[in-house]
Amino acid sequence: METNTSTTRKVNQSxxxxxxxxxxxxxxxxxxxxxxxxxxxxxxxxxxxxVPIVWAFILSFQEFNIMGSTWVGFxxxxxxxxxxVFKVSLWNTFIYTVVTVPAFVITALVIASLVQPLGxxxxxxxxxxxxxxxxxxxxxxxxxxxxxxxxxxxxxxxIIGWFGFEPVNWLxxxxxxxxxxxxxxxxxxxxxxxxxYLAAMNDIDQSLYEAARIDGASAFQRWLKITIPMLKPTTxxxxxxxxxxxxxxxxxxxxxxxxxxGNATETIVHVIYKTAFRDFKFGLASAQSVILFFxxxxxxxxxxxTLRDHH
Length: 311
What we know:
Blueprint: H1 2-30, H2 32-59, E1 62-63, E2 70-71, H3 75-82, H4 84-115, H5 120-131, H6 138-148, H7 155-162, H8 174-187, H9 191-201, H10 206-214, H11 219-230, H12 232-247, H13 251-256, H14 268-277, H15 282-307
Antiparallel strand pairs: 1-2
Helix pairs in contact: 2-15, 3-15, 4-8, 4-9, 4-12, 5-9, 12-15, 14-15
């Protein structure tokens, strides 16, 4: 009796799987034109994203050589964590992220809050003005800022000279190089963040503000009690994206300091770049990349669990 029941259950499960498979293929065939349009993008993703990621993970357990790789287990990970330069780069990247991400999000929120009450023409003007640096190459921006930090003729030393201060070698001193890079990142307008916040603010139900006005709430109280809570999902999105970007900071480093002086501005991605393409230690570089991946994932999970909207 039990044998018959088990056989019947297996037959039912098999029938259910076959029905689901048929439904899936039927759904794909029904929307075949849409899937054909998606196919090139999917192929590019698999070839240039998924395959390199999987290969890098496998490579992190090997000592790569053109004539043949050797399996070394966790040796590359042990070497990475024993490296003083890698540990310094972890700390520098962490400091850079902790300082620049809140500055990015708060600046975007404040500017968007000031622009949102304006008319449509004014909003369009400020959207374009603040978004313009976003479409400019970071290489060009870094070159301009390197000129501004120049010891002999940079504008910053020119300004502090008005107040009687001595010129500062902003990018040539270990105690000022990393703060100089962070100042640069903070002062670049967060164009994408402003655009996203403005779009989210325009979707907030205006009846909430009307009710708050009737209750006598001031403009700041409405911003604090209505705008900021309603923007929580947008803030979470921007925090995660900007954190990922900060952990991957590279262009400013290679264009302005090269990781120096000493290792004062060394960051994780710059170390990975040097390990792979200067020292040709691709296995070690892959292990460092995997470590960076898990660090970003842990930060993203922590931020999601902390900032997600529970209501």
